[in-house]
Design a protein that fits this description.
Organism: Deinococcus petrolearius
CATH superfamily of the largest domain: P-loop containing nucleotide triphosphate hydrolases
Pfam families: cobW, CobW_C
Shape: globular
Order of helices and strands: EHEHEHHEHHEHEHHHEHEEEEH
Strand order of the largest sheet: 7-11-8-9-10
Family: Belongs to the SIMIBI class G3E GTPase family. ZNG1 subfamily.
Strand content: 15-25%
Structural class: alpha/beta
Keywords: Chaperone, Hydrolase, Nucleotide-binding
Number of domains: 2
CATH topology of the largest domain: Rossmann fold
Largest sheet: 5 strands, antiparallel
Catalytic activity: GTP + H2O = GDP + phosphate + H(+)
Length: about 300
């Protein structure tokens, strides 16, 4: 087992007890970036010195899932070690990613999801909701944990949120993290191509059908506009806040400047980032998918429509 903790003191590793297997601690950094080389060296050492059935890697809570998975799917040359680092071991064909597992604290999820501040120590300046969305949308297995402490309504909303934003994920439920090993090991769920398409749920919702999730309580609404947004009107509209019924939205918008702008909203945070230029600026448009409970589609259309140029 490999345990990664962001701080200098690895508390998680000290909690792994009563095992004859080797636990490797990687501290004071994250295996998705600063400690990626250390992770590969550790796995290489395990493969050379141990007879293993599986390697379980527990990342720090702020780790990005995609770079961790890429560590085992790319050549050392593609991974490009940092200057001064020894050559990275080639693990292709020696290990494979079986599944990416996200364990959700069901009792605290929506409290964190709705926080407006940034994650302390996060180099990318992400908010808590953005991080939670990334980790849920990338996972092959989502474990809804602490069911004994979470309100029933929150658990149901979590089920629905995962069903919409990551329909390919297998969802398990647990109390105190207790699951059978066979439920999370040797499940063969990882698919690099599918996992790389974190925004695939947006394209799926664009299809002309009623999402299954609407049966369970959460609904979706897609806003489309051919006219560009007026930047000042859009800023004023966003400053007033989106309806509280909206818990997630994602898409792209046209600000009339020839640049496609990514719209990424989770909880109480919304980020607009330039994603590249339109191939045909005259055909630019806006399209945003909203997810929430009891969404008022016409009201959302009027709200956004009032910000158009």
């Amino acid at each position: 087992m490999i345990v990664n903790e962001f701080g200098a003191v690895n508390v998680d590793a000290s909690l792994v007890v009563k095992t004859d297997e080797q636990t490797i601690e990687l501290s004071n950094g994250c295996i998705c970036c600063t400690l990626r080389g250390d992770l590969l060296y550790a796995v290489d050492d395990l493969l050379r010195t141990r007879d293993l059935d599986a390697i379980l890697i527990e990342s720090t809570g702020i780790g990005e899932p995609l770079p961790i998975a890429q560590s085992f799917c790319l050549t050392p040359e593609e991974l490009a070690p940092e200057a001064g680092q020894p050559a990275l071991p080639d693990l292709l064909g020696r290990v494979h990613v079986d599944a990416m597992v996200t364990v959700v604290d069901s009792a605290q999820f929506f409290t964190l999801w709705n926080r407006t501040d940034e994650i302390p120590g996060d180099d990318f300046g992400r908010g808590f909701g953005e991080l939670l969305a990334e980790q849920i949308e990338f996972a092959d297995l989502v474990v809804l944990n602490k069911l004994d402490l979470a309100p029933a309504g929150d658990v149901q909303s979590l089920r629905e949120l995962v069903r919409i934003t990551n329909p390919r994920a297998r969802v398990l439920e647990a109390t105190r993290g207790r699951l059978e090993a066979g439920e999370v090991l040797n499940v063969g769920l990882f698919d690099m191509d599918a996992a790389s398409q974190q925004g695939a749920w947006v394209a799926e919702l664009e299809k002309e059908h009623t999402p299954e999730s609407e049966t369970y309580g959460l609904g979706t609404h897609i806003y489309r506009a051919a006219r560009p947004f007026d930047p000042d009107r859009l800023h004023a509209m966003l400053a007033g806040g989106l309806p509280h019924s909206v818990i997630r939205s994602k898409g792209w918008i046209n600000l009339g400047d020839g640049v496609a702008t990514l719209w990424n909203h989770t909880g109480r945070q919304l980020a607009l980032e330039q994603a590249g230029t339109w191939h045909r600026p005259e055909d630019a448009f806006s399209e945003v998918v909203f997810i929430g409970r009891d969404l008022d589609g016409p009201a959302l259309d009027r709200l956004l429509g009032g910000a158009l140029a």
